[in-house]
Design brief:
By secondary structure, this protein is α/β, with parallel strands linked by helices. The chain is built from 10 helices and 13 strands. 30% of the residues lie in helices and 25% in strands. It is globular. The two termini are 38 Å apart. The structure holds oxa(dethia)-CoA.
Length: 334
């Protein structure tokens, strides 16, 4: 007997951003920078910051997941797997997925984190799709939760304008229709380590007074090098998945790039030949929210998305990790 092919579709999406808005004007009072520099070199006008003692990425992820459950009429008991992608976990251990599950009353699922930096959402979606295709789970939540401000050095003008805090969650379920995750092209090159990392706090450089004094618990980024790799790898991965699936730029309804830098997004879209009207961009409002940026854009555009829309997503991040995903949107928003 032939097994019917199962595809993994997104059946709902919800996001959460904290209230506090850190705009370029306020940043210009913190470090030697200007609204003009940030706007032209990065494209960001403002970003959201999670304030409050004792708050972490789970305080962004949990409200996104609760809203997702509400919107999709799903009870916590129905969820059988929860995957959280984050580079800013609440703790080294246990996983942030465990904490978000607890905060949302999700008790029957098993939960774990995925660490793939800014590419985390694509890596987690591919993992969720494999669970669905293998018949191991029926209702999966993928939540991207990033309190980037927790590892941003607000004395370093070359990184602090870039990042913002956000979370976004999707519900992933099976279908036999030709919708959902149809292909992915994901990569890792560990040689990227030295260009983008947090130097201390892991098992190599354990936290010490010295690591704190050297400000090694913040994002270290060699911007110019990362920029070059981001442009070429993101556009290569996106072009590759289009070629492999016989998609021309006319077939693509939406290109959803990781919101790293407006200039990276423009260069990637240009290389792919995709018109800017089809490119989801919200970097002006939120900055780079790491793995949350792609689903944050998808959820903002959700009211415009139609069943069957062809979506190409592309990301690049620390590791290096990068890749693209070809997805057909599965529902019309009522
Ligand atoms: O999401 C994960 C992957 N990350 C990325 O994709 C980020 C990739 N990199 C970038 O987006 C860009 O490289 C940055 C936004 C980080 C930097 O932009 P850039 O155009 O590459 O600038 P740069 O580092 O080459 O610096 C140009 C100048 C320097 O001055 P000099 O040496 O030319 O006098 C910097 O000191 O701009 C200066 N600069 C600033 N000036 C005003 C750097 N940061 C600032 C600032 N305000 N905030």
């Amino acid at each position: 007997m032939l097994m019917e092919k199962k595809n993994a579709i997104i059946t709902g999406i919800a996001s959460y951003v904290p209230d506090y808005i850190l705009n370029n004007e306020e940043l210009s009072r913190m470090v030697d920078t200007t609204d003009e520099w940030i706007t032209t070199r990065i494209g960001t006008k403002e970003r959201r910051i999670l304030k409050g003692e004792g708050t972490g990425s789970s305080d962004l992820g949990a409200p996104a997941v609760k809203e997702l459950l509400r919107k999709t009429n799903t009870t916590p008991e129905e969820i059988d797997l929860m995957i959280c992608c984050t580079s800013t976990p609440d703790y080294r251990f246990p996983s942030t997925a465990s904490i978000i599950s607890e905060k949302c009353g999700i008790k029957k699922a098993y939960s774990f984190d995925i660490q793939a930096a800014c590419s985390g959402f694509l890596f987690a979606m591919q993992t969720a799709a494999a669970y669905i295709q293998g018949g191991l789970a029926k209702k999966i939540i993928v939540v991207a939760a990033e309190k980037m401000s927790s590892m941003t050095d607000y004395t370093d003008r070359s990184t602090c304008p870039i990042f913002g805090d956000a979370a976004s969650a999707v519900l992933v379920e099976p279908t036999t229709e030709n919708l959902g995750v149809l292909d992915a092209d994901l990569h890792t090159d560990g040689a990227g380590l030295t260009h983008l990392l947090m130097k201390a706090g892991g098992s190599v450089n354990v936290p010490s007074h010295e690591t704190v004094d050297r400000r090694e618990h913040f994002i270290y980024q060699e911007g110019r090098i990362v920029f070059k790799y981001a442009v070429s790898y993101m556009s290569e991965a996106a072009s590759h998945i289009m070629e492999k699936n016989n998609l021309t730029f006319n077939d693509v309804d939406w290109f959803v790039p990781h919101q790293a830098n407006q200039r990276i997004i423009d260069a990637a879209a240009h290389r792919m030949g995709i018109d800017s009207s089809k490119v989801m961009v919200n970097i002006q409002k939120y900055g780079n929210t790491s793995s949350a940026s792609i689903p944050l854009a998808l959820s903002e555009w959700e009211p415009q998305l139609k069943k069957g829309d062809t979506i190409v997503m592309a990301a690049f991040g620390a590791g290096f990790t990068w890749g693209s995903m070809y997805l057909k949107w599965a529902y019309d928003t009522k």
